[in-house]
Amino acid sequence: MSLEPRHFLLVDDDDILRERLARALRTRGHRADAVADGPQALAFVQKERPDIVVLDLKMPGPSGLETLRQLRALAPEARFLMLTGYGSIASALEAMRLGAFDYLTKPADADQILAALNPPDPEAETEPEMVVPSLERIEWEHIQRVLAECNDNISKAAQVLGLHRRSLQRKLQKYPPLR
């Protein structure tokens, strides 16, 4: 199933990824504009109305979630997709609660973004692939959930988790496990 041409706005502080995705979407027949942060995205949406906004979760300045909240008020008709290298269940749930239609982890490509826009075919009878997360991934998810419940207060989260604050800080500096 192919999509009619759409207008995308890519919001990501990673210049290389942002431009690579924009170029890939353009070669697939879509219009793709790209900005580096939330304030630039807000300024863009005040002038133009993209169909799809792809937002990075962690950016300098306002986070992707805060930017999503503000963009949603300016362009309620747009569809929003969160893209992050720091995926967690807590941040995914928050993004969905704020109005994102999907949440993809980096490295995501244009095909994955376009696939997220296509509804699944109800006629297709395929067995869903069962992915069992590793213990490291479950630990990461649990830490992220507790941290979110503690309003990102590392000292309080460390106390709840029964860890020393510095140990928790070291765990948070690592990238999340892929699986």
Number of domains: 2
Helix coverage percent? 40-55%
Please identify the structural class as seen in this structure: alpha/beta
Helical stretch count? 8
Range of strand content: 15-25%
Physical arrangement of strands within the biggest beta sheet: 2-1-3-4-5
CATH class of the largest domain: Alpha Beta
Name the overall outline.
globular
The description of the largest β-sheet is:
5 strands, parallel
> What low-confidence regions span 5 or more consecutive residues with pLDDT below 50?
none
Q: Specify the CATH homologous superfamily of the largest domain.
A: Response regulator
Q: Which features characterize this protein?
A:
2 domains, five-stranded parallel sheet, globular, 47% helix, alpha/beta, Rossmann fold, 8 helices, Arc Repressor Mutant, subunit A, 15% strand, 179 residues
Q: In summary, what is this structure?
A:
The chain is α/β, with parallel strands linked by helices. It is 47% helix and 15% strand.
Describe this structure in words.
With 179 residues, this protein is of the alpha/beta class. It has two domains: 7-117, 3-Layer(aba) Sandwich (Rossmann fold); 135-173, Orthogonal Bundle (Arc Repressor Mutant, subunit A). It is 47% helix and 15% strand. The chain contains eight helices and five strands; from the N terminus they run E-H-E-H-E-H-E-H-E-H-H-H-H. It has helices spanning 15-27, 38-47, 64-74, 89-98, 110-117, 135-149, 154-161, 165-173; strands spanning 7-11, 31-35, 52-56, 79-84, 100-105. Strands 2-1-3-4-5 form a five-stranded parallel beta sheet, sandwiched between helices. Helix 4 (89-98) links the parallel strand 4 (79-84) and strand 5. The longest helix has 15 residues, at 135-149. The chain is globular and about 50 Å long.
